[in-house]
Design a protein that fits this description.
This protein is an all-alpha fold. The protein folds into two domains: about 40 residues; about 60 residues.
Length: about 110
């Protein structure tokens, strides 16, 4: 009989603890939901998107500079046009710089004001 009372008492205590834990979880979820809904749902901020655009422009310009080199006569090989500084050095540097800017734009955290 004493064991039954002891078990009932423990059951009541456990149910009170569960109820308080449920209330705590509910309030935490509500506050997190309010915080999420009040903040901007964009993945990145404006500055990140501007940097990404600048990186894409650099990559595009680099590929444009690499293009070309077509000869009017297919039987003539123009070594200077194909192996020019613009195609061999400048364009790849711009493409790599563009990819670096893209990586920076993705990893940059927004400034908090």
């Amino acid at each position: 009989m004493a064991k039954k009372k002891n078990l009932k008492q423990k059951l009541n205590e456990a149910s009170k603890e569960v109820a308080s834990a449920q209330a705590e979880v509910k309030s935490t979820v509500q506050s997190a939901t309010q915080t999420a809904s009040s903040s901007n749902n964009m993945l990145f901020h404006k500055e990140n998107y501007l940097l990404m655009g600048a990186g894409l422009v650099l990559i595009f310009i680099g590929f444009l500079l690499m293009a070309g080199g077509k000869s009017a006569d297919p039987n003539v090989f123009d070594k200077d046009a194909l192996f020019s500084f613009r195609r061999i050095t400048l364009a790849p540097i711009l493409v790599l710089l563009g990819f670096a800017v893209e990586g920076y734009a993705i990893l940059k955290k927004p400034s908090t004001n």
